Amino acid sequence: MVRWCTASLLSFTLFALASADSFENTAIVRTVELGGSLVQVTTTFAVKALEANSKVYTVALSDAEKQTASWLEARVKGQPNVLEVADRGPDSKFAVPFQHTVSFLIFYSGVHLLDISLPQPLGLNASTNIVLETIQTHATYPWPERASQQDPQGLKYKTDLLVLSPYRTAVQRTKIRSPSPSVHSYTTPENVGDFTLDAPVTKSGATITYGPYNNIAPSANEKFISKHQQPVFIHYDYEYPVLQIPKLKRAAEISHWGANLNIQDDIHLRNAGPALKGHFSRLEHQTQTFYKRSAPHVIPGLTLHLPAGIRNAYYYDLNGNVSTSRLRTAPSVPKNAQANQYSLLELRPRYPIMGGWNYSFTLGWDSPLADSASVDKTTGKYIVQVPVWTPIPASVVNEAEVKIILPEGATDVEFATPFPAVSSAMSTHITYLDTVGRPTITLHFKDLTERHAQPIFVSYNVPLSAHLKKPIAVAVAFFSVFAFALITRRIDLRIHKN
Ligand SMILES: *[C@@H]1O[C@H](CO)[C@@H](O)[C@H](O)[C@H]1NC(C)=O
Ligand SMILES: *[C@@H]1O[C@H](CO)[C@@H](O)[C@H](O)[C@H]1NC(C)=O
Ligand SMILES: *[C@@H]1O[C@H](CO)[C@@H](O)[C@H](O)[C@H]1NC(C)=O
Fold it and tell me: Which of 18, 210, 295, 456 has the greatest number of CB atoms lying within 10 Å of its CB?
């Protein structure tokens, strides 16, 4: 047993060393753009390979960072191609092989490792810049938690002082940018004497800079984290509403019969800013609106970009049709054309949505099927694109359900999501005049941002017999009425014959 442990310990150490020795970070710069529901974090790693043929660079995220990173993308600086990122999961891989023999070695390090595949292997001493971009959601919270109608809107953001890495880092810094220069407070880190002799934090305008911190040992391990890592809080003013969509349900119905794609969204919107203190005063609101200094934690309305070429748009809430909205439709654009055309919808709810308030509404429209469908020439299958969602700018969708209802009788259904869904299922949906029902794909997603508004591709066959089913069903229905009328006319229901 002792020999086993020693052997395992040795290989564990070797493994860890090998991993830490393949690269060195010559510099790390992390930039945090604070916002309301969304916070954009861009980290640039200037890396140097310490081994020939280095292909995989590993980044480490803390648990909290992993939890909030709803969108994540890695690139070589200045290049358009997105690099492949493989998630190793919360446990470091060294621990797994020894699970049963030396369980005391298995501690949870509190870091999440992601392997980034470089476009080409780096030679010894070669260097490159890797840019990791994440959009964080649920990373800010209102502070104070309650505000009256005249108060400003303060938010707090929490992050970790140091960017973790399995490799040595020569120098790193973190810049946190507030959207407004009014930063109420920020943390001054302690015990950073190992890394810097200068001021550990500086503020210039709306930017707070932590670092430069020098000579940082490999940090993606529990020992380093417990010794050096510390939380950093920024308290700042945010002048726009904090929009959250706790629940979004989208139903997309494809109809070949009407050459139509109908989209209907049931949106549960929440103002996630500070909860309103005291009563809502419409007079105060009108006064503020009149002087164009509406409180930031009030949502008076929304402006949405809907697709070009839509028809029959509708918008209603629990009380019925909302007439105080305006839609300007743009004409249809050919599919796949890089069009910047969109229809503009200005939504005006019946009442301004104050901090902590919810508002549920339904929004729907029709669009020509030809704008999002095509036929695969080799297989003859239809391919339809349905966007995961239509973004409400600067908002996060906590939970989304997307249902795609295909034409009746569709077969060989396949679909591809632009990023993994939380769950997916197939079922059959039966509506008016359907005979066999429509195949339906139901997908669930969580923490969607504007970056997730990408198409889901669905492909299927519609056999000719299925195409004819609807006309036949309609014809049968029509004919029955006709026949009934014909028969009733022949039957004499009069009681007395003259
Ligand atoms: C790589 O860099 C190290 C240290 O800077 C140097 O000693 C070594 O000769 C370099 N190797 C090559 C192949 O350039
Ligand atoms: C709903 O309101 C819009 C905008 O005023 C109007 O054009 C539309 O006809 C209304 N729809 C219904 C069903 O009343
Ligand atoms: C708003 O919705 C959230 C969940 O979506 C709920 O927890 C909260 O109680 C609701 N607030 C009000 C005022 O109804």
Answer: 210
